[in-house]
Amino acid sequence: MTRLSAVPDIASPVAQTAPEKAVQALEEDIVLGRLHPRERLIEDDLMQRFDLKRHAVREVLAELARLGLAERRKNIGSEVRSFAPREVVELYEMRELLETQAARLVPCPAEPEALQALIEIQREHDAAVEAEDPRQVFRSNLRFHQALFGMCGNSVLVRAIHEYARQTHPIRFGTLVAPEYRHRSRREHWAMIEALREGRRDDLVALCRAHLQPSRDAYLAANRHLADPPAAIHPETS
């Protein structure tokens, strides 16, 4: 089976294939809460929606699984991935490690050109929040964090941040669609910009850490009924 290329940077001008467009559309549906954890992804429905052959839809579903957004369950088929509480905590622990490390590496104070670019992106985010446009909030939020962490100069770290952030898309939908969380995110972005402008690295690291908490906590609060998987049983050693 042909592996689809990763969904390109949202600012990239590179043309996408029809399956890649389907992956991006479904990714947005998941992060914006149009598709919910454990909701089935039915091949026939996707074939009709995206005008794709069955083999192409299966490639799309395989790519969503590779990205950590979907999973295939026996006798059920593909569905939006759900997370047990322990998985959520562990994913966000990893995101915190990666993103706070990037915050420790970015130039602080930031270079004027890089800071101005970040400000321009945040103005787009402000406009999307004011317009109550969740899709553009999502896209401008991604651009903001790509630009922020891209300043760290470590491309491997930046890719890891992107991949782990993407895995939490099914967790984040509650905060992206709720106005109070969107406004909080907006305020925190501006606080990060001011910390970068004034050279307050410790504050920047603390802001990056705190910025992760609302989506994690909202998902855990809304999904208390989900049980952690049983611990693995290891044979006793003599």
Automatic annotation (TrEMBL):
One of its GO terms (molecular function) is DNA binding. It comes from the Bacteria. InterPro entries: GntR_C, TF_FadR/GntR_C, Tscrpt_reg_HTH_GntR, WH-like_DNA-bd_sf, WH_DNA-bd_sf. Pfam families: FCD (PF07729), GntR (PF00392). SUPFAM superfamilies: GntR ligand-binding domain-like, Winged helix' DNA-binding domain. PROSITE patterns: HTH_GNTR (PS50949). Keywords: DNA-binding, Transcription, Transcription regulation. PANTHER family: TRANSCRIPTIONAL REGULATOR, GNTR FAMILY, TRANSCRIPTIONAL REGULATORY PROTEIN. This is GntR family transcriptional regulator. It comes from Bordetella genomosp. 10. The lineage of its organism: Bacteria, Pseudomonadati, Pseudomonadota, Betaproteobacteria, Burkholderiales.
